[in-house]
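Hey L., structure's done. Input below.
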Amino acid sequence: MDGATSWNETVRKQAEDLEQEGHAQDADSVDVCGYLHVHEDAVRKVKTLLPDEQHLTQLSDLFKIFGDSTRIRILYILFEEEVCVCDIARLLGMTQSAVSHQLRILKSARLIKNRRDGKTIFYSLSDDHVRTLLSQGMEHIMEE
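Output:
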């Protein structure tokens, strides 16, 4: 028996054991290949299309910014209207200092921009890419 056949038999046996124990696959399970076989053409193609590690890390860092519900709430406020720190603080029931801290993080990630009008600084989304990320994220979670 070669290695692939042996591995196939092991996987098949594990699946049978799980079925007998009542662990049938459900919507939350992940399907795996029934045997070990690398599709070299697909691997070669995808390898040439993958972004470099630096860009993947930058993308990961960007998505980490979206991992905080306060920052998401701020982005959604700015999705609707250009506003100042006082407005955001009022809408969120937070101190201006706490809002300013979150705005600094969002600005350093280039998700928001600001403009000065006299003594007041107004914040808005930096561009349509941010608007699209928010829109598509909301659309995704609203799917049934």
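The chain has two domains: 3-49, 58-142. The first helix runs from residue 3 to 20.

-- N.
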